[in-house]
Amino acid sequence: MDDVPDGSNELYARLAAFEGRAAVVSGVGKDLVNEPMIRHWCEAMGDANPAYTGPDAIAPATMLQAWTMGGLSGHTGHTGHTGRSDRSDRQSAQDELFALLDGAGCTSVVATDCEQEYFRALRPGDRVTFDAVIESVSPRKTTKLGSGHFVTTRMDIRAGGELAGTHRFRILKYAPVARPEHKRRVARPRPVINRDNAGFWEGVAEHRLLIQRCAGCGTLRFPWLPGCNACGSPEWDTVEASGAGTVYSYVVMHHPPFPAFDPPYAVGLIELAEGVRMVSNVVGVPYDKVRIGMPVQLEFMRAGDEDEESEANEGNAEWELPVFRPAHEGARA
Fold first, then answer.
1. What distance separates the 2 farthest-apart alpha carbons in the chain?
2. Per DSSP, what are the bridge partners of residue 298?
3. What is the pLDDT of residues 313-333, one digit of tens each?
4. Residue 2 pLDDT > 60, yes or no?
5. Which residues make Cβ contacts (< 8 Å) with residue 262, sequence separation at least 6?
6. DSSP notation for 249-263
């Protein structure tokens, strides 16, 4: 990532003038911190920490931003930086900034990272309030996606008037690089195989999906780990998965483009019949038809081709990947 000349010092001066401007003033969480949302979060994350249940429960610290989100209907009743309470104006400083970036050709956006700091535990019944400010706008940068500006927004989140934490969210507003009309075929990258997961990939080569089982407490685990995260035992054996599962969650990948893949495509978090979850591609169905709860069945997909014309493919003989297709389509192992 490199700095590039803005082409107009005046443009960056206008962008930098947004630093310090309020994006949200006196925002109020739509719901009190509550046990059902904490439970849903912990179930989704697989976090069974007892601190999140019972009469003295606290909310997971990483839920900090969740209590500020407006959902599909958005927020109403709090003021934006102009002081008006209409919902359309609450983030008008950001709207103005983004309009200026759009006008400069930076019409695409991608989230790059977030940072959180925690100062006070949130508990069921807390009413969350928040303010947000445009903290920084970077000079124009060149990335593989294109050239543009990083915009960082800081949100200060309070409960009972006391600072509970801060949330910094950074995006890149950029002008996308023109994609070549003809792309050279590039092999799918091979998985990284090490001493901890070699047995898994040996099973895949034999068209067997193996799950680790702790020899101490019997807990199944995936992905493969050197020890049990339930009892700490380093001893284990394996069980073979039946191949049946459901889509627990999924995302549709659009960016960044990679020559070995053809976005958009679906990546699913598959809950196997045995109870563990794994990340894999959902194939045999259009990406926009994948649904949470969809029954799927394991199959093994051949990848790599030593005939492909790329230096990266040299010696890249065919190998196998576990993927899932809708169960009604049938498995083709």
1. 66
2. 324
3. 444 457 899 999 999 754 443
4. no
5. none
6. EEEEE-SS--TTS-S
pLDDT in tens, 170-180: 999 999 887 66
Mark out the alpha helices in 22-91 (DSSP H runs): 35-45
What six digits make up the tokens of 308? 């492909």
What average pLDDT does this structure show over 61-74?
A: 88
Q: What CA dihedral angle connects 229, 230, 231 and 235, to 10 degrees?
A: -60
Q: Is 326 within 8 Å of 285 (Cβ atoms)?
A: yes
149-185 core/surface letters (b: 16 or more CB in 10 A; e: else): bbbbbbbbbbbeeeebbbbebbbbbbbbeeeeeeeee
CB-count burial class (<10 Å; 0-12, 13-18, 19+) for 89: middle
- Token pair 């010696």 in the structure block, residue: 315
Rounded Cα distance, 300 and 280, in Å: 11
Give tens-digit pLDDT for 217-237.
999 999 999 999 888 899 999
**270 contacts 280 by C-beta, under 8 angstroms:** yes
Q: Is the peptide bond before 326 cis (omega within 30 degrees of 0)?
A: no
- CA 316 to CA 302: how far, in whole Å? 12
Q: Where are the domains of the chain?
A: 2-176, 198-329
Q: How far, in Å, CA of 12 to CA of 174, rounded?
A: 14
pLDDT at 255: 75
Q: How far apart are CA 269 and CA 252, in angstroms?
A: 12
User: To 10 degrees, the CA torsion angle through 251, 252, 258, 259?
Assistant: 130
Domain 2-176 carries which CATH code? Answer: 3.10.129.10
Closest CA to 214 of 229, 193, 197, 199: 229
Residue 216 structure tokens: 């101490």
Predicted pLDDT of residue 329: 53
